[in-house]
Design a protein that fits this description.
The complex is a heterodimer of chains A (about 280) and B (about 140). By secondary structure, chain A is α/β, with parallel strands linked by helices. Chain A is built from six helices and six strands; from the N terminus they run H-H-E-H-E-H-E-H-E-E-E-H. Chain A has a single domain, classed as Pyruvate Kinase, Chain: A, domain 1 (3-Layer(aba) Sandwich). In chain A, about 60% of the residues lie in helices and about 15% in strands. With about 140 residues, chain B is α+β, with helices and mostly antiparallel strands. In chain B, strands 1, 2, 3, 4, 5, 6, 7, 8 and 9 form a nine-stranded mixed beta sheet that branches. In chain B, helix 1 packs antiparallel against helix 2. The chains are: A alpha/beta (about 280), B alpha+beta (about 140).
């Protein structure tokens, strides 16, 4: 049995850990609230953009099809954009992402990583990393996606890859997050919103020159949405895993305290026995 | 007519207006009630609104404008009210962008140039709008 001194030290350690994890849990909870607000705030823009894109691209002639909507070739290569957090301590989120990536990708595909935590797993897997970006630890802003889309643009427009997919973690509920693949390029506007009639009488300058810009925004917005979603998933995963860590630490503290008291009692008992033994010996 | 100004981060403006003046790829246009249904591309610059004779200014960057049966929607990457513009910050941003733009061609990539140019245009637009702050009859 460990000495009481060792036990007090271990109790202290466990208490410190539980304090830290408790604080991290609370931080994650407040960030989670912000992440939910951010995801909600971007929705009006997305809805409007999707409706307009759907309307404008409906029934467009094949020859006029913008380069962003070209169908991929049979044997074309794919660019995987992997979105992960910068920081760990969020349960199995990063591991699940890496596993999904391994399952979905081929050896000669290309990769772009967002988030420090996924960099090394991808680097171990392949040499075809196009670029790596940090994810940041605060709520993602729209500005951060410009350089990322620029690189995706280059890869796609130069024909190096003819398909771009996003791999990110989706928020299912507080307790589960799921790695999910989303198609980014080529763009296939959703069909459901296109039932409304084509109602613009006037285009300035003209449809052909507006469409590429519109589709570029469409692409950016899908990426931004996925980044927001990942952030939301990250915070909820961290909150739950930190909550579990706090509970575990508390359990350990309980056990250690029990053991400490037992040891203490045993020590006192043995001391009393010693004293009474001494007394009977001298009398 | 109603106007919505929407950015990816939030809705900046929502409400009734009488007149809208905005910069498009083909030049400045004004939109009055019962304008023909229109879809057009916007360039970074100043946005002027009029409501009951009062004027309001905003700075916006690239985006799109849709007029649909007296409902105007502006989708833009970034928009800011004149009174929210922090002049010192914008000046700083402009200076930074200028420095990058002045660099020799060989020492700067195309993307860097494009990003700096966009930042510069946005700063110029914001400064222009910020100047209206003082002579604004609203509030």
């Amino acid at each position: 049995m460990a000495s009481t001194q060792q036990l007090t030290r271990r109790i202290k350690t466990a208490q410190n850990i539980s304090k830290t994890t408790k604080a991290m849990q609370m931080i994650a909870a407040s960030k989670l609230k912000k992440a939910q607000d951010a995801a909600l705030a971007s929705r009006p823009y997305v809805e409007k953009l999707f409706v307009i894109t759907g309307q404008l691209t409906k029934g467009i002639e094949k020859a006029l099809l913008p380069v962003y909507m070209k169908k991929p070739k049979q044997k074309g290569k794919t660019l995987f954009v992997v979105i992960a957090p910068d920081k760990g301590l969020c349960g199995g989120l990063v591991t699940n992402l890496a596993r999904e990536l391994l399952r979905q990708s081929k050896a000669d595909d290309f990769f772009l990583t967002i988030g420090k935590k996924i960099e090394s797993p991808v680097a171990r897997m392949t040499k075809n990393i196009v670029a790596s970006f940090p994810f940041g630890t605060t709520s993602p802003t729209y500005n951060t996606i410009y350089p990322i889309t620029k690189i995706i643009d280059e890869q796609f427009l130069s024909g190096k890859v003819d398909k771009v997919v996003l791999l990110s973690t989706h928020f299912i509920n507080m307790f589960s997050q799921k790695p999910t693949i989303t198609n980014l390029l080529p763009i296939t506007p959703s069909e459901e919103d296109t039932n409304e009639k084509f109602q613009f009488q006037l285009f300035e300058p003209d449809l052909e020159s507006i469409l590429p810009d519109l589709l570029k925004r469409y692409m950016r917005m899908i990426l931004f949405q996925e980044i927001l979603e990942s952030y939301l998933a990250e915070q909820s995963a961290r909150m739950i895993s930190m909550q579990n860590a706090t509970n575990n630490a508390k359990e350990i503290i309980e056990e250690l305290k029990l053991e400490y008291n037992k040891t203490r009692q045993a020590k006192i008992t043995s001391e009393i026995l010693d004293i009474t033994g001494g007394m009977t010996a001298t009398s | 007519m109603t106007l919505d100004i929407v950015t990816p981060e939030k809705i900046i403006f929502q409400g009734d207006v009488d007149e809208i003046y905005v910069n498009t790829a083909d030049g400045e246009i004004g939109i009055l009630p019962h304008h023909i249904n229109l879809f057009t591309k916007l360039i970074p610059g100043e946005l002027k609104l009029k409501l009951l004779g009062k004027e309001q200014y905003m700075a916006i960057t690239d985006g799109f404008l849709e007029v649909n049966n007296n409902k105007v929607t502006i989708l833009t990457d970034y928009a800011i009210h004149a009174e929210d513009i922090e002049v010192e910050k914008v000046m700083e941003a402009r200076k930074k962008a200028e420095e990058i733009l002045k660099k020799k061609e060989s020492r700067i990539t195309k993307q860097e140039f494009a990003l700096a140019e966009a930042a510069f245009k946005r700063a110029v637009a914001e400064l222009k709008v910020a100047n209206h702050k003082h002579k604004r009859p609203m509030h």
